[in-house]
Design goal:
- It is a single chain.
- With about 350 residues, this protein is α/β, with parallel strands linked by helices.
- It has two domains: about 120 residues, Rossmann fold; about 140 residues, Rossmann fold (3-Layer(aba) Sandwich), CATH 3.40.50.1400.
- Helices cover about 50% and strands about 15% of the residues.
- It has eleven helices and eight strands.
- The strands form two sheets. Strands 2-1-3-4 form a four-stranded parallel beta sheet, with helices on both faces. A four-stranded parallel beta sheet has the order 6-5-7-8, with helices on both faces.
- Strand 7, helix 10 and strand 8 form a beta-alpha-beta unit.
- Helix 1 packs antiparallel against helix 2, helix 4 packs across helix 5 and helix 6 packs across helix 8.
- The N and C termini lie close together (about 5 Å).
Length: about 350
């Protein structure tokens, strides 16, 4: 039996390493069976992935160039991994933490190999997606579980499938919303737009819990805001990043902005609730596209909350989450027996 300390694989989507890597990254994404389902997919999927990645690569590449050529996601996830490892060590747990990306390096097999090299005899998969969807957390955990099975049969595997209901997560987002509200002190007609990544409606119809968990996250955040301030902040929940001719969960950000404008809101605080790190969909979609759209529609101010990234409160949140769920496993300190 394999014995050793517990290690953590910190899971995220990944991003292209450079503009030239965009097509390969997109092809990896569209090859994922958990991300897209269609008739005859086993035969058609390679052709579908090659075609769609070719068609979309140019537009996505131009967006990355606006950000300087690439996304900060890998760097931020590495900082989160280092921060989590340090936060656990301060609490008395010597636990190696490695980054594990779904569609770019380091892949699951690389993360497992690194954790084994650092003495891990048990691996905890921790997605950086607060809400569970089969297309995000589900896909990442499935790939990690398969890598553990392929590379090291007998290696123990545990997972944290979701943490949308974590009170510390709600509090962290609430603090950032209140910081934005403070910057808009004196402004009239301030509203809050809570934003999550959308999913196809068919996912929800098949039982994917993502949308329900997003809504419960919003309830938790609103509870925090209600305790922290007596000022009423009108709010809406919207979903971003709908692409293609299929039906997606809404309302869209554009529809929500129109509704808020009609209700007399002229300054909007935008708070992503399903992203914890800055990447293309915060830095480009929200900060540039939606901001420009809002100003052109007539909004006076458009403020996005600061992302959690590798902030102290976020890595402490992750450390507390892991300890609460797996304290007994983290406390073991055994030698490796192959």
């Amino acid at each position: 039996m394999i014995r050793g300390k517990t290690g953590i694989a910190l899971l995220n989507m990944g991003s292209p390493a450079s503009p030239g890597d965009v097509r390969r990254f997109l092809r990896q994404l569209f090859l994922d069976i958990e991300m897209f389902h269609f008739p005859g997919e086993r035969l058609v999927r390679p052709f579908f992935a090659a075609l769609i990645s070719s068609l979309r690569a140019g537009r996505v590449r131009r967006r990355y160039r606006v950000l300087g050529g690439t996304s900060p996601l890998l760097r931020l996830t590495q900082e989160q991994a280092g921060g989590l490892e340090g936060a656990l060590l301060k609490r008395g747990y010597s636990v190696p933490v490695e980054v594990c990306m779904r569609y770019s390096h380091p892949f699951s097999s690389e993360a497992v190999a690194r954790l084994r090299a650092r003495g891990a005899g048990e691996i905890i998969g921790l997605p950086l997606y607060p809400q569970f969807s089969h297309s995000t957390s589900g896909s990442s955990l499935l790939a990690l579980r398969q890598a553990v099975k392929d590379l090291r049969p007998g290696l123990s595997f545990r997972e944290i499938a979701h943490w949308y209901d974590d009170p510390d997560y709600h509090a962290a987002l609430g603090r950032r919303i209140l910081a934005c509200r403070e910057r808009l002190a004196g402004e009239e007609g301030v509203g809050l737009l809570l934003v999550a990544h959308s999913v196809p409606e068919r996912f929800v119809l098949r039982g994917d819990p993502y949308v329900e968990q997003v809504e419960k996250t919003v309830t938790g955040i609103l509870d925090v805001l209600g305790r922290e301030t007596s000022a009423h902040l009108p709010w809406l929940l919207a979903y971003q990043s709908q692409v293609g001719p299929i039906r997606w969960v809404g309302p869209t950000v554009s529809q929500a902005l129109e509704a808020m404008l009609g209700d007399g809101i002229r300054s909007v605080i935008v708070a992503p609730v399903s992203f914890v790190s800055d990447h293309l969909e915060t830095l480009y979609d929200i900060d540039l596209l939606y901001r420009r759209q809002a100003i052109e529609m007539g909004f006076q101010r458009f403020e996005r909350t600061e992302s959690l990234n590798a902030s102290d409160d976020f890595v402490d949140l992750l450390a507390g989450l892991v300890i609460r769920r797996f304290e007994e496993a983290l406390s073991r300190s055994e030698s490796v027996e192959d």
